[in-house]
């Protein structure tokens, strides 16, 4: 995780800016939940909730990473603030505690709880192998390289997509490495925003332009080739999945 240096150099106090923007993004989410009546409103901080610009969102996405932003959506707003400011931007807990109006002990607990929910279990040999295959698949998808895609797909690969994930004219199911590879190459823009994550404990990917989750890719591998992959985009499917980060 790194700050977007080129953009942040123009900001007089990057640490203060990041603290304010990350806090506002988290608290804006809390306010949105209140408006949707998704959960009872509780006063979470002395910070007033204020609007965050699209440019702010872009810079934060570049700073902490697209996959992390997606996983952070699964945390409470205060967990997000504590985790991001400490783990991504190395702010001391004493300063974070003042930001969120909590004790230092409570702030450390928030960050620890968030860390446990963000990262998956230690990587096994199987997960490491599957990750390499999925990374190779995504690299080929981003470049639109049909031959490279065919090489990483099983000959009888099956692609399934739900009603939201399907583009116009796309079937719910497509079979065969050549047909699937050509379809992926024709939709390579999606892969630009794809990042590898753990999906329900297995290696998958999220497609998240500027940190906004749009689709999840779930893979079934046979050896070093992809046998089945699903593209999920419905609200119900996305909310039901357990998404966690893999270590760098």
Assign the CATH class of the largest domain: Alpha Beta
CA(first)-CA(last) distance: 9 Å
Which sequence of strands runs across the widest sheet?
Answer: 2-1-6-5-4-3-7
Rg from Cα? 20 Å
What is the oligomeric state here? Answer: single chain
Percentage of residues in helical conformation? 40-55%
Task: Give the integer mean of the pLDDT values.
Answer: 78
Describe the fold and architecture.
The protein has 248 residues and is α+β, with helices and mostly antiparallel strands. The protein has helices spanning 5-8, 14-36, 54-64, 66-72, 77-88, 93-100, 104-118, 125-143, 146-152, 177-186, 188-192, 235-240; strands at residues 153-161, 173-175, 194-199, 202-207, 215-222, 225-232, 243-244. The chain has two domains: 5-118, no CATH class; 125-244, Nuclear Transport Factor 2, Chain: A. The protein has a seven-stranded mixed β-sheet. Helix 2 (14-36) runs antiparallel to helix 5 (77-88), helix 6 (93-100) packs across helix 7 and helix 8 (125-143) packs antiparallel against helix 9.
Overview features:
248 residues, alpha+beta, Nuclear Transport Factor 2, Chain: A, 7-stranded mixed β-sheet, 17% strand, disordered N terminus
């Amino acid at each position: 995780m790194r700050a977007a240096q080129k953009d942040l150099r123009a900001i007089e106090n990057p640490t203060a800016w990041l603290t304010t923007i990350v806090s506002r993004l988290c608290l804006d989410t809390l306010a949105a939940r209140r408006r949707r009546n998704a959960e009872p409103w509780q006063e979470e901080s002395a910070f007033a909730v204020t609007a965050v610009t699209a440019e702010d969102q872009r810079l934060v996405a570049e700073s902490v990473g697209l996959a992390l932003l997606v996983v952070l959506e699964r945390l409470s707003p205060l967990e997000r603030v504590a985790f991001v400011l400490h783990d991504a931007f190395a702010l001391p807990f004493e300063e974070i505690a003042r930001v969120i109006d909590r004790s230092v002990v409570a702030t450390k607990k928030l960050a620890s709880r968030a860390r446990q929910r963000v990262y998956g279990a230690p990587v096994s040999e199987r997960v490491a192998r599957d990750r390499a295959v999925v990374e190779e698949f995504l690299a080929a998808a981003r470049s639109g390289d049909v031959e490279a895609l065919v090489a990483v797909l099983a000959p009888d690969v099956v692609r399934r997509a739900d009603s939201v994930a399907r583009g116009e004219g796309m079937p719910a199911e497509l079979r065969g490495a050549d047909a699937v590879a050509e379809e992926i190459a024709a939709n390579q823009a999606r892969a630009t925003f794809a990042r590898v994550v753990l999906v329900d404990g297995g290696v998958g990917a999220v497609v998240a332009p500027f940190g906004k989750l749009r689709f999840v890719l779930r893979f079934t591998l046979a050896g070093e080739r992809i046998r089945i992959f699903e593209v999920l985009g419905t609200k119900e499917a996305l909310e039901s999945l357990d998404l966690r980060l893999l270590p760098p």
